[in-house]
Write a structure and sequence with these properties.
The complex is a heterodimer of chains A (356) and B (251).
Chain A lengths: L3 E5 H11 L4 E4 L6 H10 L6 E4 L3 H13 L4 E5 L1 H16 L4 E7 L15 H5 L10 E3 L4 H18 L2 E7 H5 L1 E5 L26 E2 L6 H21 L3 E4 L6 E4 L2 H16 L4 E6 L1 E3 L3 H8 L4 E6 L5 H8 L6 E5 L8 H12 L6
Parallel strand pairs in A: 2-3, 2-4, 4-5, 5-7, 6-7, 11-12, 11-14, 14-15
Antiparallel strand pairs in A: 1-8, 6-13, 10-12
Helix pairs in contact in A: 1-2, 1-6, 3-4, 9-12, 10-11
Chain B lengths: L22 H15 L5 E5 L7 H4 L3 E4 L5 H11 L5 E7 H7 L1 H9 L5 E6 L2 E2 L5 E2 L18 H4 L5 H5 L5 E8 L3 H19 L4 E7 L3 H4 L3 H15 L3 E5 H7 L1
Parallel strand pairs in B: 1-2, 1-3, 3-4, 4-8, 7-8
Antiparallel strand pairs in B: 5-6, 7-9
Helix pairs in contact in B: 1-8, 4-5
Classes of the chains: A alpha/beta (356), B alpha/beta (251).
Chain lengths: 356, 251
């Protein structure tokens, strides 16, 4: 059993990135994730890595693009409005098949919004992280330990599938302190020599990192190939956690901080004799469609608990083919649903139908 | 006896540029310099968005296509990935470098990023069919300044070398042209120095190359060269705008 240390989510994440072999961090200050940049600024010079504060979010993601194109593990972090600025670069990373890790410690929006925790970038992360046909792998931690584990995993998935991965966190996960183990095992190395632009040494044909394909049939071919890879990811990389689902008649679906609140509400509802459990997506893309669809044959209703006006709820409805009602329990703008809020929604769901 | 051959750093493919366009000359000069310095195997070039977008097909070194204007930021990421060994250059037009990418240009210079920037200024957006550029001259007619650039409404051209000469981090700034043999020779000398500076770890070098666009200027190649001399050069005087190390030597 590895020793545990007490760490703030953002700092634990930064240390995990370093342990995953990331030596190139480019960022721009924005609350509530600036601890990541501060940690990198302190650590990187001591281990021969690069910390660079860019002139903008746009420049930062393009620096990541450059380092990733050269074959290095690179990352950037930001919060909601900053991620919007990075969306151009994220699309270019996807279109050029480059691995990178992008951290979004979400805050309330739209516009300048607020600085309190939010999950209102779900659509942006899972459906429209930039222009064009592409996906990001989207990982959603619900503890400081998962901030660490999923950062490590995120780099590996990015390299394995040659695509950008996003860690979709929120201000709560970033700011809270919990004991964590930083024992993550070996870093798997990937051979990038067939595509990385790091100098030919005059020993091979030149590599070109590019997302421009002016012939439509060629561009279509690359998009088809990329989506074949996405299909493999959907088949092999779905991650979720189940809580008290064995005999559940109501299924809560929640990720991140919303799942933490929901877990307390489930325990309370169970004390009152309501059979409720939770499926917690850990990958938001690929979304755990199959497990939700299977659950829809057993439960009478779902409750989506979100810190948004209701975004993930659409994916739940799609996943279960609208077989059962899905209720929304939400707060937005930086507000967090209380255990009581979730409990009353569970009770409302419990009144639905007679038997199942 | 071979008296003239294609530089090794230039790929053996037909270029797509219009007849009379000077991009071909500038590509060749860059490739000759890469050959002469023997750095092809460790050079990474960053292509822009604009007429020279396909530059990634024309150089034999590793190449990366950047988003519009972002080449200096991409170059920063590449340079920082292996600063002791690699040689990184960007090749950018006026819209790319002096409009949408102004922030990336100024801040790469301010950081003293150890890269080489080749900036091709032909006073027009070529690829999209001849719109007004940040460097379009006062009174110059383009698709989006059909009555001539009216400085009272859209302001004045950006003089990149003059602007960057006030940036402390910039090392070497020179404006050259490729409209005659003498100027082409000077241009090559400047480009070579800009690469040599990087090899010597001296920091940010930018060479502005005053260039032609016969197609979108609506002139024959020969007339375009004359127009460059009569109109561009008075507004964009050739010369060294900053040479940090020469200044030090003078002192």
């Amino acid at each position: 059993m590895a020793d545990k240390v007490l760490m703030k989510g953002n700092e634990a994440l930064a240390e995990a990135a370093i342990m995953a072999g990331c030596r190139h961090y480019f960022g721009y200050p924005i609350t509530p994730q600036t601890e990541i940049a501060a940690y990198m600024a302190k650590r990187m010079p001591l281990i021969g890595g690069t910390f660079l504060q860019a002139e903008s979010e746009i420049a930062a993601i393009n620096m990541v693009y450059g380092a990733a194109a050269a074959g290095k593990r690179a990352m950037t972090s930001s919060s909601s409005p900053g991620i919007a600025l990075k969306s151009e670069g994220i699309s270019y990373l996807a279109g050029s098949d480059l691995p990178a890790l992008i951290i979004n410690v979400q805050r309330g929006g739209p516009g300048l919004g607020g600085i309190q925790p939010s999950q209102s970038d779900y659509f942006q992360a899972t459906k429209s992280a930039g222009h064009g046909d592409f996906h990001l792998i989207v990982l959603a931690p619900a503890s400081v330990q998962e901030m660490v584990d999923l950062t490590f995993k995120g780099f590996d998935l990015a390299d394995k599938y040659r695509m950008p991965t996003m860690l979709l966190s929120d201000g709560t996960m970033g700011q809270m302190m919990e004991p964590v183990s930083l024992d993550m095992g070996e870093v798997k190395e990937y051979d990038k020599s067939s595509w990385a632009a790091c100098g030919t040494k005059c020993e091979r044909e030149h590599n070109v990192v590019n997302s421009l394909f002016i012939q439509p049939d060629e561009l279509e071919k690359y998009n088809f190939e990329r989506f074949e890879r996405y299909a493999q990811i959907e088949a092999n990389e779905v991650m979720y956690d189940e809580y008290r689902m064995e005999d559940a008649e109501i299924c809560i679906v929640a990720y991140g901080v919303a799942a933490r609140v929901s877990q307390n509400a489930i325990d309370k509802a169970r004390e009152n004799g309501i059979k409720v459990g939770m499926i917690r997506p850990i990958t938001l893309w690929p979304f755990p469609k199959a497990v939700l669809n299977a659950a829809a044959d057993k439960v009478k209703a779902f409750v989506s608990v979100e810190l948004s006006m209701g975004q993930m709820i659409e994916d739940i409805e799609l996943a279960i083919r609208c077989k059962k009602p899905v209720l929304l329990c939400n707060r937005t703008g930086g507000m967090i649903p209380t255990t009581g809020d979730v409990l009353s929604k569970i009770e409302e769901a419990n009144k639905i139908g007679g038997d199942k | 006896m071979v008296v003239f051959e294609k530089p090794k750093a230039l790929a053996d493919v037909p270029l797509h540029y219009c007849p009379g366009c000077t991009h071909g000359i500038i590509h060749r000069l860059v490739a000759e310099v890469i050959d002469e310095l023997g750095i092809e195997g460790r050079t990474i070039g960053i292509a822009p968005v604009g007429c020279s977008v396909f530059a990634y097909n024309y150089f034999n070194c590793d190449m990366i296509e950047a988003a519009h204007g972002r080449a200096p930021a991409v170059a920063t990421g590449v340079k920082r990935s292996d600063p002791e060994n690699n040689v990184v250059f960007t090749y950018q037009g006026d819209g790319d470098l002096a409009a949408i990418g102004t922030a990336e240009t100024v801040h790469a210079a301010a950081r003293g990023e150890n890269i080489t920037v080749i900036f091709v200024n032909n006073a027009i957006y070529g690829m999209t069919g001849g719109q007004m550029a940040p460097t379009t001259l006062p009174g110059q007619v383009t698709q989006t300044s059909p009555y001539g650039r009216d400085t009272s409404k859209v302001g004045f051209p950006v003089k990149v070398c003059e602007m960057l000469s006030n940036v402390d981090g910039a090392t070497y700034l020179e404006r050259v042209a490729v409209n005659n043999v003498k100027n082409v020779k000077n241009a090559k000398k400047a480009i070579k120095k800009a690469f040599q500076n990087q090899l010597d770890g001296k920091g940010f070098s930018l060479i502005e190359v005053v260039s032609t666009c016969p197609t979108n200027w609506g002139l024959t190649p020969e007339k375009a060269l004359e127009w460059l001399e009569d109109n561009m050069l008075p507004y964009y005087p050739l010369g060294v705008y900053k040479d940090k190390f020469a200044e030090k030597e003078d002192k």
